[in-house]
Amino acid sequence: MSKADVFRALHHHRVPGDPLVLPGPWDAASARVFVEAGFPALATPSAGVAASLGYADGQTPADEMFAAVARIVRAVDVPVSADVEDGYGLAPKELVERLLETGAVGCNLEDSEDGVLKDPRAHADRLAEVRAAAGDRLFVNARVDTFACGVADPGRAIERAALYVAAGADCVYPIGAPYEVLPLLRAGIQGPVNVGALTDEGPSPAELGARGATRITFGPGLQRRAARALREIAAQLT
Question: Which of 42, 54, 116, 158 has the most CB atoms around it within 10 Å of its CB?
Answer without folding.
Answer: 42
